[in-house]
Amino acid sequence: ASVGKEAERDASSRAGGLIRRFPWRAASDGGHGATPRTALLRSAPRQRPEGKGKGLEYYLSQFLCLASLVLLLIFLGILVVKMVGSGWLDRREESFNLLPVDCDKSTDDFCQAKQKDVTMAVLHELYNYLSVQAGNFECGNPENLKSKCIWVSEAKDHVLNVTGSSSQKFEAALHWILNSNKDLGIRLKGRDLSEPVSSVEEVFCLESAHPQMGLGCRFRRAMVTAIMNLFLFFWSLITLWGILIFLRYRWRKMEEEEQAMYEMVKKIIAVVQDHYKEWERNLERYPYVGIFHVRDSLIPPQSRKKMKRVWERAVDFLASNESRIQTESHRVAGEDMLVWRWTQPSYLSDSEH
């Protein structure tokens, strides 16, 4: 018998522990039942609706993530183009062999072949010289060049020394460049670098359109270009993130201010209604109460500057949305002031409660 009683006490203590651990156990069935699902759903706290601007905040976040990914792809693309593109342009000299032949009023096949060989040699050497000089100028300028546009006399002396051609052949090559509609990679500049030249006599300097640069220089220039573009995109993303953070902060402040305004409206209604009830019991002299008196009773002096906007919004809300409180102007203690009067009789207010 004693063992049976001890087992019963043990079972009851376990049941009580389960009830304490699981408060939703119904008391009516001795701790062995469960509260219905509808009651649990009714007692669960309701989630607050999302604030204003949450949809815009979501789309802005998605846009910024996508922009970050696009930024990375653009950076890699610029790096590849700068590394590979320049090397591809350096091979443009091979197209010289496809240029048409002009043999100075001679139809002899041998003359045409000789003219082609000489012109190709001059153009090829001129192209190489200008591209190397332009590449040196772009990659640290070890020769202290003032510009990558080389004086025509200097380019002429170099080409004639290397190829052994005459000045006439060099001028013929310049004529070919002027009259050709193909991109030969050589630009003819006059004294005014912004104005195009129309004759060989106007040529002041020669410039390569495709500088010949080494792998290290090409990689360094590609990195600089990519970093500069990345810097611009980076600041654009920072600006967008700053706008998003500011909007989130503004939305939160607006929600807090609106909630504080509704709380202030409830307090004002309670004060005005209590004042009216006390007037009905002859505890107050006037049935109305001054607006500033209500403000001073609800907001401490140290918080009035901070709560000024909340108070003004609450006053405007009562004036346009609360029919039980009427705003009037009365002379109190020799001064005109705005007051609030409760217009609903007490018996109606009590019946509502």
UniProtKB/TrEMBL annotation:
Residues 114-343 form the Man1/Src1-like C-terminal domain. InterPro entries: INM_ESCRT-Associated (IPR052277), Man1/Src1-like_C (IPR018996), MAN1_winged_helix_dom (IPR041885). Pfam families: MSC. It comes from the Eukaryota. The chain crosses the membrane at residues 59-81, 222-247. It is a multi-pass membrane protein. Coiled coil: none annotated. The keyword Transmembrane applies. Keywords: Membrane, Nucleus, Phosphoprotein, Transmembrane, Transmembrane helix. One of its GO terms (molecular function) is chromatin DNA binding. One of its GO terms (cellular component) is nuclear inner membrane. GO terms for biological process: negative regulation of BMP signaling pathway; nuclear envelope organization. Its main location: nucleus. Residues 26-49 are annotated as: Disordered. It is found in: Nucleus inner membrane. PANTHER family: INNER NUCLEAR MEMBRANE PROTEIN MAN1 LEM DOMAIN CONTAINING PROTEIN, LEM DOMAIN-CONTAINING PROTEIN 2. This is LEMD2 protein.
